[in-house]
Every structure is written in C-alpha cells, then in structure tokens.
C-alpha cells in the first residue's frame, strides 16, 4: 500500500484551523501523536537529565531589606547565579501563596474552558491585541517541530488590559518583584541600584500562560524545545509536575519544582547589555504522561511595539580590555527575527555578535 504523502504545511494549517490546540487533540482521545509534533531523532537521545551534582541555587529574599550586610549577601548569591548559571529560584519573594495558587487555577480554568469560548481569543496576529490564545507561536516556521502545549499571552505593562482578576493581582506582585530583581542585578554588576530600571528593562511585562496536556507518547515530542528567552529577565511560576531543564556546559539539569518559589532566569537582552557578564542559557520542558502541567512565564522584555530605543553593551561595562561583544539593536529588530526563526535550538544572540 502506497504511503500517504506528508505535507507538513497542510498538516500545520489543518491543526491551526481547529483553533482547539493540543488540548483539542487530547480531548479527541488520540493515541498517536501527529507527525508535526515529532522531534528529530537526534534530539531524542538526551531526554533524561544528565548525571550532575549541580543544583539550581535557591535564594531567600527574606533578609533583603533588613540591613546592608544582609542585602550584600543576597546580591552575592544573585551575582553568582546570573554569571554562572543564568537561573535561580527565589523564596520569600513577596508574592502571597494564595495569589500563586489562584493564578495557576485561573490559567487551568481558561485552558479547560469550552473551545467556543477560547476561540474568541484565538489569533496569529498579535499587533495591538492585549490578550491572545493560540498553540505554538512559530507554527508555520518550517525549521521547528511543534511543541505539546497551548498558551495564552497577555500584555500587562505599560498598558494593562481593563480587568481586575487573578492575572492582574499576580502581575502587580511580579512588577514589584521585577523592580527588586533589577536593583539586585544592577548592584551585582557594581552599578547603582537604579541603573537597569533607567534602561527601561522594567518597562514592558508580557505574561505567557502555558498549558501542557498529558502526552500519550512523551518520548516523541517536547513540551518546549530548547531555547533562550528574548527578554531582559523572566519570572516563572511552575506547578509541581516538573519537566523544566536548563543547559549547563554539556549537561541538562532539572529545575525541580519547589512549592511557593519562583524561578528567575536571565534573558538574551540582559546578556547583550551586560556584554556577557550575565548569561542567558538554553532551557526546555519535557513532555509528560502526567498533566496538565501549568506554568506562567512573565517576561520583562521592553516593548517590541513602537520602541526605537537602541540597546548595546552598557558603556559602564566595556573598556579597551573588554570591548563590546555585540552590535547595537532595537528590541523590535531582535524580536522579529526571534519569532521568525522559531524555537529551532539555536541562539538568536549569535547573529548580533561583533
């Protein structure tokens, strides 16, 4: 019997036109995973976390406002994590536990809504939309396999949507925590506390709320393919299912869920403006038979809309001995290329190296 010709574009289009995402496939009780979700065989060989003694640091922020020496101790830990690993977890971060629980419940409820309700928000055109639901933002990027997750995106700052629900309650706390993180990161660079805020690193907050349905064949696909973030900084709330891993040297290291904590990671823009002092590292999420897995990534990304501000290595951090490693860019230039490329496992930052 002749095999049916596989046309990935048509399969992606057919999947997209359902407007029901991966959740729709699971609700249809599929037992096989569509080919458009299959990752290349060579990327299946390292799905298990490598044997490693490395643990992602957990930093307690309880003492950050107590006195100078306590704050300096926290700054030292932040500095180590930002320079060596690009990732750390924080506890006593100021976001109440009930707010963390409510926002996770809210994300789950949205993704488990009647499909006809979700379809009202479904779009591939994010221009001037405050709230967007879809699956795989790079759906038509032929260089990447699709990932086993659906997402909704909400632009929170500088112009929040007109709503008072759990998402915005959570976002107020995240904005406050972001302000503190940028102060500590500025101090870790040996600069004034307000330095990174003055560069508008805190200007835009984009929240992406992921839903990873249980996967019948998790060895064939990924929850999110390996990538680094197109942000200055990312604040991640993950539930207890796990699956997040970061790349460290040649190993994959698990970021084990810690109840009540938030995961912080350095993004590409912060690596660029710190001239490689801080590192934006690749990370990924495994698909899982358990589920759904819920996570919320809050990106401090400056604005790709109508923002002409140019970013390059900060003058305070470059010298004759340490010249700029990157050319100047706008956030829009970087982000447009990042989205076009999709999550293909390569760093978009490399395209801007001098």
TrEMBL record:
Its source organism is Brassica carinata (Ethiopian mustard)
Taking every annotated instance into account, which residue ranges of this chain make up the domain Fe2OG dioxygenase? Answer: 203-302
Keyword presence, Magnesium: no
Which family does the similarity line name? Belongs to the iron/ascorbate-dependent oxidoreductase family.
What cofactor(s) does the depicted protein rely on? Fe cation
One Pfam entry name: DIOX_N
Give the SUPFAM superfamilies listed for this entry: Clavaminate synthase-like
GO MF entries: dioxygenase activity; metal ion binding
Q: Does the keyword ATP-binding apply?
A: no
Name this protein carries in UniProt: Fe2OG dioxygenase domain-containing protein
Q: Which UniProt keywords apply?
A: Iron, Metal-binding, Oxidoreductase
């Amino acid at each position: 019997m002749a095999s049916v010709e596989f046309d990935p574009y048509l399969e992606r289009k057919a999947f997209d036109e359902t407007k029901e995402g991966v959740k729709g496939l699971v609700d249809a009780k599929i037992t096989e995973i569509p080919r458009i979700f299959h990752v290349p065989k060579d990327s299946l060989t390292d799905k298990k976390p490598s044997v490693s003694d490395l643990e992602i640091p957990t930093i307690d922020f309880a003492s950050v406002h107590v006195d100078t020496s306590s704050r300096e101790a926290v700054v030292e830990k932040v500095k180590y994590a930002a320079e060596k690993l690009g990732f750390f977890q924080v506890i006593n971060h100021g976001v109440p536990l009930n707010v963390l629980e409510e926002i996770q419940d809210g994300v789950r409820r949205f993704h488990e809504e009647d499909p006809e309700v979700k379809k009202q928000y479904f779009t591939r055109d994010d221009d001037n939309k405050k709230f967007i639901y879809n699956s795989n933002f790079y759906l038509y990027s032929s260089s990447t396999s699709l990932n086993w997750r659906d997402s909704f995106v909400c632009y929170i700052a500088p112009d929040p949507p007109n709503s008072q629900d759990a998402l915005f309650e959570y976002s107020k706390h995240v904005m406050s925590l972001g302000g503190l993180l940028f102060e500590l990161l500025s101090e870790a660079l040996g600069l004034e506390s307000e330095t990174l805020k003055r560069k508008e690193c805190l200007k835009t907050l984009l929240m992406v709320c992921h839903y990873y349905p249980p996967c019948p064949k998790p060895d064939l696909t990924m929850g999110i393919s390996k990538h680094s973030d197109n942000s200055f900084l990312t604040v991640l709330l993950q539930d207890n299912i796990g699956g997040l891993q970061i790349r460290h040297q040649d190993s994959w290291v698990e970021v084990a869920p810690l109840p009540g904590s938030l995961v912080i990671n350095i993004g590409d823009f912060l690596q660029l403006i710190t001239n490689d002092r801080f590192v934006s590292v690749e990370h990924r999420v495994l698909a899982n038979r358990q589920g759904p897995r819920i996570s919320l990534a809050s990106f401090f990304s400056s604005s790709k809309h109508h923002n002409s501000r140019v970013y390059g290595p900060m003058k305070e951090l470059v010298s004759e001995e340490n010249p700029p490693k990157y050319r100047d860019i706008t956030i829009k230039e970087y982000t447009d290329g990042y989205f076009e490329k999709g999550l293909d496992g390569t760093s978009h930052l490399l395209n801007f190296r001098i």
